[in-house]
Specification:
The protein is an alpha+beta fold and about 240 residues long. The chain contains three helices and eleven strands; from the N terminus they run ααββββββββαβββ.
């Protein structure tokens, strides 16, 4: 992006604890034989029922093993797609601003980066999409569905947790007298942290193109300091995810 509002480039082991209960069937048959030795037909009927139960349980075990193998194969294929790179784009827009005397809300960005999701050790990795020379965006130029491409780049496939803007300066340009012929009054906006973190958890797979549109709500982000301090305006960024695809 140019100095004012342009784009920048920058594994499952199958295991079952169910086994056919042939031992229990034989025990039940022995008890029945001792208690009613002359009931031959009843005994045969019980044998047939026990065999049917054992056969049914064996079928269930077989089915469980087949399903586990299918699941393992599916998971393996899914994991394979994580390797490689994907392309991500980050856009910016602004909700309508209800401050009629404000002509510009300029935000100067020096870096835009992604942060991966924490691994098993709680560590994450920073990936810079664009950085170096600062560029300025007037948020009011991108309202009512209009967007500006802030950054684009190829990133490793995997899970990501947030987007970070490094903001070096912000200012308001206001019409203080209603006369279009006179210059606007420019007021600096104090940014206490110098950065903006936007929680945006997402997953990209190899070969995937991902677009993320963020709404930087200028009206809610700029707060008036009513305590009479050094900074009349304070930047408390309110940024929401509008779209991911």
């Amino acid at each position: 992006m140019g100095p004012l509002g342009g784009p920048r480039t920058g594994g499952i082991t199958a295991r079952s604890g169910i086994r056919p209960r042939f031992c229990n069937c034989r025990v039940n048959l022995a008890l029945a034989t001792r208690s009613k030795p002359r009931n031959v037909f009843g005994m045969m009927e019980r044998i047939e029922q026990s065999e049917a139960v054992a056969t049914g349980k064996l079928a269930l075990v077989t089915l469980a093993l087949v399903l586990a193998l299918i699941l393992a194969a599916t998971t393996s294929c899914s994991n394979d797609t994580v390797a490689g790179t994907a392309t991500v784009q980050v856009f910016l827009t602004d909700a309508p601003l209800d401050l009629t005397t404000v002509n510009a809300v300029n935000v100067t960005v020096t870096e835009l980066s992604l942060r991966t999701a924490d691994d098993a050790d709680g560590d994450s990795e920073k990936l810079t999409l664009v950085g170096g020379e600062p560029w300025t965006v007037n948020l009011l130029d991108y309202q009512n569905g209009d967007t500006v491409l802030m950054a684009t780049g190829d990133i490793p496939a995997g899970e990501y947790a947030k987007i970070r803007f490094e903001v070096s300066a912000a200012e308001l340009a206001m019409d203080d007298d209603g006369d279009e012929m006179t210059p606007d009054v420019v007021e600096p906006i104090f940014n206490p942290s110098g950065k903006v973190d936007i929680p945006v958890p997402f997953l990209v797979t190899a070969g995937m193109d991902m677009s993320i549109t963020l709404d930087f709500d200028a009206e809610l982000s700029v707060q008036v300091n009513t305590t009479g301090g050094t900074h009349p305006y304070i930047l408390r960024p309110v940024i929401n995810v509008v779209e991911m695809n």
